[in-house]
Amino acid sequence: QVQLVESGGGLVQAGGSLRLTCAASGVTFSIYAMGWFRQAPGKERETVAAISRSGDIKYYADSVRDRVTISRDNVKNTVYLQMYSLKPEDTAVYYCAAGRSMYRSSDVYTRGQEYNYWGQGTQVTVSS
Predict the structure, then answer these.
(1) Rounded to whole angstroms, how far apart are CA atoms 64 and 102?
(2) Is 11 a residue whose pLDDT tops 90?
(3) Fewer CB near the terminus (10 Å): N or C of the chain?
(4) Could you tell me the pLDDT band of residue 41, with boundaries at 50, 70 and 90?
(5) How far apart are CA 98 and CA 5, in angstroms?
(6) Distances (CA, A) of 123 to 40, 95, 100
(7) 3-state class of 110 per DSSP?
(8) Which residues pair with 81 in a beta bridge?
(9) CA 14 from centroid of its chain's CA atoms
(10) In whole numbers, what is the pLDDT of the chain averaged over residues?
(11) Per-residue pLDDT tens for 59-116?
């Protein structure tokens, strides 16, 4: 049983920071590329950031570039999303996802369809 559990969401004022955590269990974490996604009310799910299984290659959506940092700890089986200078438009449910990287440690997946497992989500609310 592969399980991903997000935590760290909550209410924060605009301009503040927040760190989201995704803990994986029942999986050989280091063979999975990881991603963070979000979905706001009335909007489609969008990719926020992604990281290769090695941790060396990262992707950021233009909407969050320079305000977020994705990282992973393959010993702790955990991926993080550090968010800075939060804006009200960052309000959404944030999901982590794991996708098998079968061939290259540098693989980065930017589409939800490329992921095999998903967490339940954690709510981030940014007030003005």
Answers:
(1) 28
(2) yes
(3) N
(4) very high
(5) 11
(6) 10, 9, 26
(7) coil
(8) 20, 70
(9) 20
(10) 95
(11) 999 999 999 999 999 999 999 999 999 999 999 999 999 999 877 888 999 999 999 9
Q: Cβ distance 20 to 81 under 8 Å?
A: yes
Q: Are strands 10-13 and 122-127 parallel, antiparallel or unpaired?
A: parallel
What Cα–Cα distance (Å) separates residue 41 from each residue in 91, 93, 113, 116, 120? 9, 9, 21, 24, 16
Residue 28: predicted pLDDT: 84
The predicted structure's pLDDT at residue 1: 65
Inter-residue contact 76 to 29 (CB < 8 Å): no
C-alpha distances (whole Å) from 34 to each of 7, 13, 30, 87, 106 are 16, 27, 10, 24, 12
Quick one: tokens of 62?
Answer: 């233009």
Residue 6 tokens read as 């997000």
